[in-house]
Amino acid sequence: MTDIDFAGRTALVTGAASGIGAACARFLADRGAARLILTDWDARGFDGLELACPFNTIVGDVGDPDHWSTVAEHLEGLDHAVLNAGIAGAGKPIAELDWARWKRTCSTNLDGVFLGLKHAMDAMRQSSGGSAVVTASVAAVRGIASVDYGATKAAVAHMARIAAREGGPDGIRVNAIAPGGVDTPIWDTTEGFRSFVESKMEGDRARAIEEFGKIGTPLGRFATADEIAGQIGFLLSDMASTITGAVLVSDGGFSI
Ligand code: NAI
To answer: What SS3 state is found at 133?
Structure first.
């Protein structure tokens, strides 16, 4: 196959109600996917969702094994998975980070990806293989974020390598994407970004994203969710048929 084409394919996307996950759902649907299974804990984020293919939305917490028992009922014949749900880090130094907040980040960013991979790889093994992409971060390769975020993202990138080694004999490819800054609502959940918008940008969010995009980044800007979705789509697709266990850094050169 020489094109990015998901005709006849079934795909799972986590964190699908917003940002990169929602963009992945659109990318897959627009390129012929037969059926999408979309999950997120934000039910309202799915309101009014329209896609070019049939889809199921399942609301729940990716860090909860019981949620995955429900999702697993929909995974028969699964070809692709985007394990992408994530939350921002606490934005605190290690000495000030409390246990409950550490566990909260680990639950979504680490447990959620483990549970997703476990169920997706099981379903793919029972059909004829497939491919998965996990969303790490440039914080997996540079020590730049708070420890809960950076450590969980580094673990997710490494999980892709182990999953790739295990899945290869069953025809399952697993890769990670490690984005730098991407303009999505996740930024609005962080204290640091919100206070920058208010105190330095007079409430102009778009200008704040522009300014953040310039910091240490040779290309001088954030990515869009659609750009990252296209790169995830490439890794999922048959065009990437020999790529497995890779961590694709997509950060405008931030980590150089
Ligand atoms: P977003 O906030 O727009 O989307 C994340 C989605 O995940 C939301 O719909 C949220 O409700 C969902 N979610 C969070 N925790 C969940 C849970 N426990 N169970 C179910 N759903 C949950 O953010 P964005 O940027 O689209 O994030 C997607 C992934 O990309 C995350 O893993 C994030 O860490 C990663 N990432 C984002 C970057 C950025 O600059 N936006 C940079 C590098 C990585």
So the answer is: strand
